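Researcher: I'd like a candidate sequence for this fold, 144 residues long. If you have to choose between options at a position, lean toward the conservative one.
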């Protein structure tokens, strides 16, 4: 069974880049997805907005932080991931995020000037390891 999703929406805030203790870049994005439909009975137009937190890692994180800005319309493809943590008060919390595999500008209402980024070298096996919960964006990561 596939755990893949694609959303298209507007960035709700500036990308927030951070680095783990091991030097891995991670960027947190907020994306608002608007839906609009006509009610069958009243024929009135209705709207709803869903908000998603998106997490990017490594080169994608750095490229997103350098390329994206609040208000831009983007397309995000990634997997849904639920994480849990305990607050300082001992409360158990959890949330579902999209861990991005690809991000691109939506060209429906805009144009883009895409430039190829230089690769830094092959990805080492250690770079693919899972990151501790303490190193996740929005927790105790070291800000740049």
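Model: Candidate sequence:
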């Amino acid at each position: 069974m596939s755990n893949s999703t694609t959303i298209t929406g507007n960035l709700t805030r500036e990308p927030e880049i951070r680095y783990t203790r091991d030097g891995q870049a991670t960027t947190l994005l907020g994306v608002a997805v608007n839906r609009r439909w006509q009610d069958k009975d009243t024929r009135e137009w209705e709207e709803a907005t869903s908000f998603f937190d998106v997490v990017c890692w490594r080169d994608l994180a750095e490229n997103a932080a350098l390329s994206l800005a609040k208000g831009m319309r983007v397309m995000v493809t990634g997997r849904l991931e639920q994480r849990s943590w305990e607050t300082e008060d001992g409360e158990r919390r959890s949330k579902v995020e999209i861990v991005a595999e690809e991000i691109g500008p939506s060209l429906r209402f805009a144009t883009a000037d895409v430039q190829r980024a230089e690769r830094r070298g092959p990805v080492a096996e250690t770079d693919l390891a899972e990151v501790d919960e303490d190193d996740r964006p929005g927790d105790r990561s070291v800000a740049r």
